[in-house]
Every structure is written in structure tokens, then in C-alpha cells.
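User: Here's a structure from my thesis project, written as C-alpha cells. My advisor, Dr. K., wants to see whether a designed sequence matches the one we expressed. Can you design one independently, without my sequence as a hint?
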């Protein structure tokens, strides 16, 4: 195994573990707050977060690529032909076409993150567009995925926190009651014509 292959495998394994740890935290949030995630406000966020999780998990396997446009186009064309000929795609097809499939999966993760930021800007940070190599692009998306899960953990914890209750009515003393009655009586007498 050459050093380049070794470096890629080490990065890929570390990245998948990072993604799985964050995905597990998300799964716990889904389990602990199932009713909230089923509401209109949170349902779309659950879909986007799941899509980001899966897309980054898959992309971590595929990041070993050149990034050359000619190679990306060639793999996109082969991938499309394979879909048309076989009417099926599996992981080996994803890996064989990684020049294109990596872009597809990270693009899908980015789209989900941008949707989350648009709808949950106070919970999910913005995707910062810039030229990145495949690992940098994956890492940026994973950083945002982790920040999004952190944000939703805080959001849901705040929803679950006990709300401050107003103090219950403290019973009035007999003197306070008499004063209120006296005040109302005097106001009533002033309002009557003489």
C-alpha cells in the first residue's frame, strides 16, 4: 500500500467515525424529541439533517479523486449510462464513478445545510462558498453538520426547560380587602349625582 492510499484510508476512516458520532447524536435527538420532530416546524429540518448525514457518510468513502473537470464529466457520463443500462446503482458503481459521485453527495449535503440555515439561521451556521479540495469540502460540510446538531440540541433543550411560573396569587389580608372595598365605595359615591 503506497503512502497516498494509506493517507486516504486514514482520513476516510477518521471522517466516517466523526460522521457516525454526529449521526448518533442526531438519532438520539430524534428519539428523545420524536413529537417535536413530527411537527410542521421541525419535520423538514429532520429530513435535511438526515440527508446531510447520509450524504457525508457516503462521500467520505469517495473523496480520493482528482477533481479534474474532464474526469468528472467522463464519470458522470459513465454513471448515467450505467443507470440507463442496468436500472440499478450500488456502492461499487458509486466508487467507480467517484469523480462525479463525490461531488453529487457533497453537493447534496451542501444543499441540505443551506436549506437548514435559511429556515433555522439562529441554529445552523451558513455554508461559506469557496474553492476547496475534496477533503476540505467534506470537512467544511461535516463541521456545519456538527454545528447544526449542536444548535438543535440547544434549541430542543430550551424547549424542554421548565418555564418560569408566575407566583400564585398571595391571599390578601383582611385590611387589604377593606381598603379595596373602601376605595370602590368612595369612587361609586363620587360617580352618583347629588
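Assistant: Designed independently from the structure alone:
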Amino acid at each position: 500500500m503506497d503512502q497516498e492510499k494509506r493517507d486516504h484510508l486514514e482520513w476516510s476512516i477518521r471522517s466516517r467515525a466523526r460522521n457516525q458520532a454526529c449521526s448518533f447524536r442526531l438519532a438520539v435527538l430524534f428519539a428523545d424529541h420524536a413529537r417535536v420532530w413530527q411537527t410542521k416546524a421541525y419535520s423538514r429540518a429532520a429530513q435535511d439533517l438526515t440527508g446531510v448525514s447520509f450524504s457525508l457518510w457516503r462521500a467520505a468513502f469517495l473523496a480520493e479523486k482528482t477533481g479534474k473537470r474532464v474526469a468528472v464529466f467522463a464519470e458522470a457520463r459513465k454513471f448515467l449510462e450505467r443507470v440507463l443500462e442496468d436500472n440499478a446503482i450500488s456502492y461499487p458503481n458509486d466508487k467507480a464513478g467517484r469523480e462525479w459521485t463525490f461531488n453529487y453527495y457533497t453537493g447534496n449535503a451542501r444543499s441540505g445545510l443551506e436549506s437548514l440555515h435559511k429556515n433555522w439561521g439562529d441554529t445552523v451556521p451558513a455554508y461559506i462558498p469557496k474553492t476547496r479540495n475534496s477533503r476540505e469540502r467534506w470537512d467544511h460540510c461535516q463541521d456545519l453538520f456538527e454545528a447544526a446538531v449542536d444548535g438543535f440540541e440547544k434549541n430542543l433543550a430550551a424547549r424542554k426547560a421548565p418555564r418560569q411560573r408566575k407566583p400564585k396569587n398571595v391571599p390578601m389580608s383582611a385590611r387589604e380587602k377593606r381598603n379595596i372595598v373602601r376605595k370602590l365605595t368612595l369612587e361609586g359615591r363620587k360617580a352618583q349625582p347629588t
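When you compare it with your expressed construct, this may help: Residues 140 and 162 are 35 Å apart (CA to CA).
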